[in-house]
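Lab notebook: predicted structure, single chain.

Context: the supervisor wants predicted structures on file for every construct in the current expression panel, including those that have not yet been purified. This is the next one on the list. No modifications to the sequence; it matches the entry in the shared construct table.
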Amino acid sequence: MADFNTQTIRKAGTWSGAFEQCTLTYDERFLRRKVIKTAHEEDLLVDLPHTTSLNHGDAFELADGRLIEVIAAKEQLLQITGDLVQLAWHIGNRHTPCQIEIDRLVIQHDPVIGHMLEHLGASVTEVFEPFTPEGGAYGHGRTHSHAHGHTAHDH
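Prediction complete. Output recorded below exactly as produced.
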């Protein structure tokens, strides 16, 4: 039996005073129902109404109101530098999650995409840090499909 359970997420910036933390990779922060370990090795059963993309700084709210903070884990990533506008277009065209910064792009460690970007003139470097990519074009977070909404010029 899990030590804690939750069905509620509090978004970053809307809460304070967590009593515990859990460190999760980008892929682990996309969940609906899962048992995860807290920093003190307690089990937390997450049972959300729908699959949710969690961000660094979000929190799980327990039934008694206590909060467990979500920390983005360090993971193996690729740092991309070069013509960022062109490179970001190619990354987005492949539906690859991307962390966009002023002087670099960061993607999950993918040698195939890294090699393609090098052929486009990018400098690709391995880094080990938290991955916090941008939300999608149709709202925050992620979906399993590539279905897109309709725009006014579709009709």
